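F.,

This is the one I mentioned.
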Protein backbone atom coordinates (compact mmCIF):
# COMPACT_ATOMS: atom_id res chain seq x y z
CA UNK A 1 0.00 0.00 0.00
CA UNK A 2 2.83 2.39 0.79
CA UNK A 3 4.36 1.70 -2.63
CA UNK A 4 1.10 2.53 -4.42
CA UNK A 5 0.62 5.67 -2.32
CA UNK A 6 4.15 6.83 -3.23
CA UNK A 7 3.44 6.14 -6.89
CA UNK A 8 0.15 8.07 -6.84
CA UNK A 9 1.62 11.01 -4.95
CA UNK A 10 4.56 11.23 -7.34
CA UNK A 11 2.26 11.23 -10.35
CA UNK A 12 0.19 14.05 -8.88
CA UNK A 13 2.89 16.39 -7.62
CA UNK A 14 5.96 15.85 -9.78
CA UNK A 15 6.94 16.37 -13.35
CA UNK A 16 8.87 14.08 -15.64
CA UNK A 17 12.66 14.67 -15.11
CA UNK A 18 15.13 15.57 -17.83
CA UNK A 19 17.39 12.95 -19.43
CA UNK A 20 20.30 13.52 -16.99
CA UNK A 21 18.17 13.01 -13.90
CA UNK A 22 16.41 10.07 -15.53
CA UNK A 23 19.73 8.25 -15.92
CA UNK A 24 20.49 8.87 -12.24
CA UNK A 25 17.12 7.44 -11.20
CA UNK A 26 17.68 4.37 -13.34
CA UNK A 27 21.15 3.78 -11.88
CA UNK A 28 19.95 4.09 -8.29
CA UNK A 29 17.05 1.74 -8.94
CA UNK A 30 19.30 -0.84 -10.61
CA UNK A 31 21.90 -0.82 -7.84
CA UNK A 32 19.37 -1.05 -5.03
CA UNK A 33 17.44 -3.79 -6.85
CA UNK A 34 20.60 -5.83 -7.39
CA UNK A 35 21.61 -5.59 -3.72
CA UNK A 36 18.14 -6.53 -2.49
CA UNK A 37 17.75 -9.39 -4.96
CA UNK A 38 21.08 -10.89 -3.96
CA UNK A 39 20.38 -10.57 -0.23
CA UNK A 40 16.83 -11.93 -0.50
CA UNK A 41 17.75 -14.93 -2.63
CA UNK A 42 20.73 -15.74 -0.41
CA UNK A 43 18.53 -15.61 2.69
CA UNK A 44 15.95 -17.84 1.01
CA UNK A 45 18.67 -20.30 0.03
CA UNK A 46 19.97 -20.46 3.59
CA UNK A 47 16.54 -21.08 5.06
CA UNK A 48 15.78 -23.72 2.44
CA UNK A 49 18.96 -25.54 3.42
CA UNK A 50 17.69 -25.60 7.01
CA UNK A 51 14.33 -26.91 5.84
CA UNK A 52 15.98 -29.60 3.74
CA UNK A 53 18.28 -30.59 6.61
CA UNK A 54 15.24 -30.99 8.86
CA UNK A 55 13.46 -33.16 6.29
CA UNK A 56 16.50 -35.34 5.65
CA UNK A 57 17.01 -35.80 9.40
CA UNK A 58 13.42 -37.01 9.75
CA UNK A 59 13.81 -39.44 6.85
CA UNK A 60 17.13 -40.74 8.18
CA UNK A 61 15.48 -41.28 11.57
CA UNK A 62 13.05 -43.60 9.82
CA UNK A 63 15.99 -45.45 8.28
CA UNK A 64 17.60 -45.86 11.70
CA UNK A 65 14.34 -47.21 13.12
CA UNK A 66 14.02 -49.72 10.28
CA UNK A 67 17.64 -50.83 10.77
CA UNK A 68 17.21 -51.23 14.52
CA UNK A 69 13.93 -53.12 14.09
CA UNK A 70 15.47 -55.45 11.53
CA UNK A 71 18.46 -56.18 13.77
CA UNK A 72 16.14 -56.69 16.76
CA UNK A 73 13.97 -59.13 14.78
CA UNK A 74 17.01 -61.17 13.80
CA UNK A 75 18.93 -61.18 17.08
CA UNK A 76 16.50 -60.75 20.00
CA UNK A 77 13.61 -62.69 21.47
CA UNK A 78 10.23 -61.71 20.05
CA UNK A 79 9.13 -59.89 23.22
CA UNK A 80 12.43 -58.02 23.47
CA UNK A 81 12.39 -57.08 19.78
CA UNK A 82 8.86 -55.72 20.07
CA UNK A 83 9.80 -53.75 23.18
CA UNK A 84 12.80 -52.20 21.45
CA UNK A 85 10.65 -51.25 18.46
CA UNK A 86 7.94 -49.73 20.64
CA UNK A 87 10.45 -47.60 22.49
CA UNK A 88 12.23 -46.21 19.45
CA UNK A 89 8.96 -45.45 17.60
CA UNK A 90 7.72 -43.66 20.73
CA UNK A 91 11.01 -41.77 20.98
CA UNK A 92 10.57 -40.64 17.36
CA UNK A 93 7.32 -38.75 17.96
CA UNK A 94 8.34 -37.69 21.47
CA UNK A 95 11.41 -35.94 20.09
CA UNK A 96 9.22 -33.79 17.81
CA UNK A 97 6.85 -33.09 20.68
CA UNK A 98 9.76 -31.72 22.67
CA UNK A 99 10.75 -29.23 19.98
CA UNK A 100 7.91 -26.86 20.84
CA UNK A 101 5.86 -25.90 23.88
CA UNK A 102 2.41 -26.14 22.30
CA UNK A 103 2.31 -27.67 18.79
CA UNK A 104 1.88 -31.28 19.95
CA UNK A 105 0.07 -31.32 23.28
CA UNK A 106 0.93 -34.28 25.51
CA UNK A 107 -2.66 -35.14 26.48
CA UNK A 108 -4.43 -34.25 23.23
CA UNK A 109 -1.90 -35.48 20.66
CA UNK A 110 0.97 -37.47 22.14
CA UNK A 111 -0.85 -39.79 24.56
CA UNK A 112 -3.69 -40.69 22.11
CA UNK A 113 -1.11 -41.37 19.41
CA UNK A 114 0.88 -43.70 21.67
CA UNK A 115 -2.29 -45.50 22.73
CA UNK A 116 -3.59 -45.89 19.18
CA UNK A 117 -0.43 -47.62 17.97
CA UNK A 118 0.37 -49.41 21.23
CA UNK A 119 3.80 -47.84 21.61
CA UNK A 120 3.76 -47.42 25.40
CA UNK A 121 1.86 -49.09 28.19
CA UNK A 122 0.07 -46.96 30.76
CA UNK A 123 2.75 -47.86 33.32
CA UNK A 124 5.50 -46.70 30.95
CA UNK A 125 3.59 -43.50 30.15
CA UNK A 126 3.12 -42.66 33.81
CA UNK A 127 6.79 -43.40 34.51
CA UNK A 128 7.77 -40.86 31.87
CA UNK A 129 5.21 -38.33 33.05
CA UNK A 130 6.55 -38.46 36.59
CA UNK A 131 9.99 -37.59 35.27
CA UNK A 132 8.82 -34.26 33.83
CA UNK A 133 6.99 -32.57 30.96
CA UNK A 134 7.01 -33.60 27.31
CA UNK A 135 6.80 -30.24 25.54
CA UNK A 136 9.80 -27.98 25.13
CA UNK A 137 12.35 -30.60 26.20
CA UNK A 138 14.19 -33.54 24.70
CA UNK A 139 14.61 -35.35 28.01
CA UNK A 140 11.72 -37.76 27.43
CA UNK A 141 12.89 -39.09 24.07
CA UNK A 142 16.42 -39.44 25.40
CA UNK A 143 15.02 -41.39 28.33
CA UNK A 144 13.30 -43.78 25.93
CA UNK A 145 16.59 -44.24 24.08
CA UNK A 146 18.22 -45.13 27.41
CA UNK A 147 15.46 -47.66 28.09
CA UNK A 148 16.08 -49.21 24.69
CA UNK A 149 19.81 -49.60 25.25
CA UNK A 150 19.12 -51.04 28.70
CA UNK A 151 16.87 -53.73 27.20
CA UNK A 152 19.47 -54.67 24.59
CA UNK A 153 22.32 -54.83 27.09
CA UNK A 154 20.29 -56.93 29.52
CA UNK A 155 19.49 -59.37 26.71
CA UNK A 156 23.19 -59.55 25.87
CA UNK A 157 24.27 -60.04 29.48
CA UNK A 158 21.70 -62.82 29.90
CA UNK A 159 23.18 -64.66 26.92
CA UNK A 160 20.08 -64.18 24.76
CA UNK A 161 21.84 -61.93 22.24
CA UNK A 162 25.28 -62.13 20.63
CA UNK A 163 27.69 -59.34 21.53
CA UNK A 164 28.18 -58.21 17.92
CA UNK A 165 24.43 -58.09 17.32
CA UNK A 166 23.92 -56.05 20.49
CA UNK A 167 26.69 -53.66 19.44
CA UNK A 168 25.13 -53.13 16.01
CA UNK A 169 21.69 -52.63 17.49
CA UNK A 170 22.97 -50.09 20.01
CA UNK A 171 24.81 -48.27 17.22
CA UNK A 172 21.59 -47.91 15.22
CA UNK A 173 19.71 -46.65 18.27
CA UNK A 174 22.41 -44.10 19.09
CA UNK A 175 22.47 -42.97 15.45
CA UNK A 176 18.72 -42.43 15.74
CA UNK A 177 19.29 -40.26 18.81
CA UNK A 178 21.82 -38.19 16.89
CA UNK A 179 19.43 -37.61 13.97
CA UNK A 180 16.60 -36.64 16.31
CA UNK A 181 18.87 -34.04 17.90
CA UNK A 182 19.30 -32.19 14.58
CA UNK A 183 15.95 -30.44 15.03
CA UNK A 184 17.03 -29.17 18.44
CA UNK A 185 20.34 -27.98 16.98
CA UNK A 186 18.62 -26.02 14.20
CA UNK A 187 16.10 -24.39 16.51
CA UNK A 188 18.86 -23.56 18.98
CA UNK A 189 20.71 -21.52 16.33
CA UNK A 190 18.21 -19.71 14.06
CA UNK A 191 19.12 -17.61 11.04
CA UNK A 192 21.11 -14.61 12.39
CA UNK A 193 18.75 -11.76 13.23
CA UNK A 194 21.12 -9.13 11.84
CA UNK A 195 20.95 -10.64 8.37
CA UNK A 196 17.18 -11.09 8.46
CA UNK A 197 16.81 -7.50 9.68
CA UNK A 198 19.02 -6.26 6.83
CA UNK A 199 16.86 -7.94 4.20
CA UNK A 200 13.66 -6.61 5.78
CA UNK A 201 15.06 -3.08 5.94
CA UNK A 202 16.26 -3.20 2.32
CA UNK A 203 12.83 -4.39 1.22
CA UNK A 204 11.00 -1.62 3.06
CA UNK A 205 13.35 0.99 1.58
CA UNK A 206 13.46 -0.37 -1.97
CA UNK A 207 9.77 -0.80 -2.78
CA UNK A 208 8.77 2.87 -2.22
CA UNK A 209 11.89 3.98 -4.13
CA UNK A 210 10.92 1.64 -6.97
CA UNK A 211 7.44 3.19 -7.09
CA UNK A 212 8.85 6.72 -6.97
CA UNK A 213 11.31 6.15 -9.81
CA UNK A 214 8.69 4.36 -11.89
CA UNK A 215 6.31 7.30 -11.50
CA UNK A 216 9.03 9.81 -12.39
CA UNK A 217 10.22 7.99 -15.50
CA UNK A 218 6.93 6.73 -16.94
CA UNK A 219 4.40 8.70 -18.95
CA UNK A 220 0.98 9.71 -17.66
CA UNK A 221 -1.08 7.77 -20.19
CA UNK A 222 -3.65 5.25 -18.87
CA UNK A 223 -1.77 2.35 -20.46
CA UNK A 224 1.52 3.38 -18.86
CA UNK A 225 -0.12 3.87 -15.47
CA UNK A 226 -1.75 0.43 -15.70
CA UNK A 227 1.54 -1.28 -16.60
CA UNK A 228 3.32 0.59 -13.79
CA UNK A 229 0.75 -0.62 -11.26
CA UNK A 230 1.24 -4.19 -12.48
CA UNK A 231 5.02 -3.79 -12.16
CA UNK A 232 4.68 -2.44 -8.60
CA UNK A 233 2.38 -5.32 -7.63
CA UNK A 234 4.79 -7.90 -9.05
CA UNK A 235 7.81 -6.32 -7.33
CA UNK A 236 5.99 -6.27 -3.99
CA UNK A 237 4.79 -9.84 -4.45
CA UNK A 238 8.29 -11.05 -5.27
CA UNK A 239 10.27 -9.36 -2.50
CA UNK A 240 7.64 -9.60 0.24
CA UNK A 241 6.91 -13.17 -0.84
CA UNK A 242 10.59 -14.10 -0.64
CA UNK A 243 10.73 -12.69 2.88
CA UNK A 244 7.61 -14.63 3.91
CA UNK A 245 8.87 -17.87 2.38
CA UNK A 246 12.20 -17.45 4.14
CA UNK A 247 10.44 -17.01 7.48
CA UNK A 248 8.33 -20.14 6.95
CA UNK A 249 11.23 -22.31 5.78
CA UNK A 250 13.42 -21.28 8.70
CA UNK A 251 11.08 -23.08 11.13
CA UNK A 252 9.66 -26.28 9.56
CA UNK A 253 8.21 -27.71 12.78
CA UNK A 254 4.61 -26.81 13.44
CA UNK A 255 1.08 -27.08 12.08
CA UNK A 256 1.31 -24.82 9.02
CA UNK A 257 0.68 -26.23 5.55
CA UNK A 258 4.30 -25.66 4.58
CA UNK A 259 5.74 -27.40 7.66
CA UNK A 260 7.05 -30.94 7.68
CA UNK A 261 4.37 -33.62 7.92
CA UNK A 262 5.68 -34.92 11.23
CA UNK A 263 2.58 -36.84 12.30
CA UNK A 264 2.39 -38.49 8.88
CA UNK A 265 6.00 -39.62 9.24
CA UNK A 266 5.32 -40.95 12.73
CA UNK A 267 2.14 -42.78 11.71
CA UNK A 268 4.09 -44.65 9.06
CA UNK A 269 6.55 -46.25 11.45
CA UNK A 270 4.47 -48.62 13.67
CA UNK A 271 2.88 -50.43 10.73
CA UNK A 272 6.13 -50.64 8.79
CA UNK A 273 7.98 -51.97 11.84
CA UNK A 274 5.22 -54.51 12.48
CA UNK A 275 5.81 -55.87 8.99
CA UNK A 276 9.48 -56.35 9.82
CA UNK A 277 8.75 -57.95 13.21
CA UNK A 278 6.34 -60.47 11.70
CA UNK A 279 8.60 -61.44 8.81
CA UNK A 280 8.99 -65.23 8.57
CA UNK A 281 11.04 -67.37 6.21
CA UNK A 282 8.73 -69.84 4.37
CA UNK A 283 8.97 -73.44 5.66
CA UNK A 284 10.07 -74.68 2.25
CA UNK A 285 12.99 -72.30 2.24
CA UNK A 286 13.99 -73.38 5.75
CA UNK A 287 13.82 -77.03 4.71
CA UNK A 288 16.01 -76.40 1.67
CA UNK A 289 18.58 -74.70 3.85
CA UNK A 290 18.71 -77.68 6.18
CA UNK A 291 19.15 -80.04 3.23
CA UNK A 292 22.06 -78.01 1.95
CA UNK A 293 23.74 -78.27 5.35
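My design for it:
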Amino acid sequence: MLSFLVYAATLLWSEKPDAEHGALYTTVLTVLGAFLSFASIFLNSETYQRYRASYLASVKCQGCIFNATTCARASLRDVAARTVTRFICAAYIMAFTGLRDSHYDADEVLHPFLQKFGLLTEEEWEALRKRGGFAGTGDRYRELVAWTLKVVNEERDAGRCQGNDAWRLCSDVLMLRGKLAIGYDLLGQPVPFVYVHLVRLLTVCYLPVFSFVLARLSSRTPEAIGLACVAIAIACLFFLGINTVSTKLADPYGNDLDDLRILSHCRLMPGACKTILTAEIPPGTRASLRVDE
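Residues 147 and 192 are 37 Å apart (CA to CA).

Talk soon.
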